[in-house]
Amino acid sequence: MSISTVMITGATSGIGQSLTKAFLAQYDKVIACGRNRDALDKIEQQDCIPCLFDVNNRQQMQQATSELPDIDMLILNAGDCQYIDDAINFNAEIFDDIINTNLISTGYLLQCMLPKLKQGGQLVFISSSSTILPFPRNQAYGASKAGLDYLANSLRIDLASQSIDVTLVHPGFIETPLTEKNNFPMPFIISSEEAANRIIEGINKRKKYLHFPKRLTLILKLFHLLPKSWWQAITVRSLKA
Known about the structure:
Layout lengths: L4 E4 L5 H11 L4 E6 L2 H5 L6 E5 L5 H9 L4 E6 L15 H22 L3 E10 L12 H20 L6 E7 L2 E2 L14 E2 H13 L4 E4 L1 H12 L2 H13 L1
Parallel strand pairs: 1-2, 1-4, 2-3, 4-5, 5-6, 6-9, 7-8
Helix pairs in contact: 1-6, 3-4, 4-5
């Protein structure tokens, strides 16, 4: 099908910003969603429709999306990352915040926008390759993204009758404001522009699953096939180093 209108959440930074710029060069209209008014105002292209809301403000989300037109593609990219540094003194507030931001809010946005997604359209979830294996300190972020994985794969079944394709994306480390805060090695990290290009290439082919860079994700998938005790021993040893 020909795409005319695409909606992107988290459009003002990182992968979302790069996707917005790339899609504005390809399609008739882009609905750029974000909570930063100044950043949205800087997207001055004629074919961009700014949509201001915080994903954790349900009333604001409903009001902002109620007047939007029907769309051909919905890219669910908005999210946050925080780590739980002390597992014994588990920080439930961080866990609650990340689960709500990355997962629960997605359900409310789907409630608002799935009725506006045209038959034959496409739904894209930007998840994370961190769901392939468990990582230390990653309980909140990893659990939220694992929930997105299941949500995407389940919706793919139920939306097939509407000829709506669902694409699940597992990026590795990407240069974004979120990864700038990381104080650990990030192998094979790529720019948000390169990530956006790979996502768009997969979307155009209507692929069900994308993962990149494969130098990283294939290594993770290999470890996933090995006994879980091996991965635990490796990660525990790395924490002690």
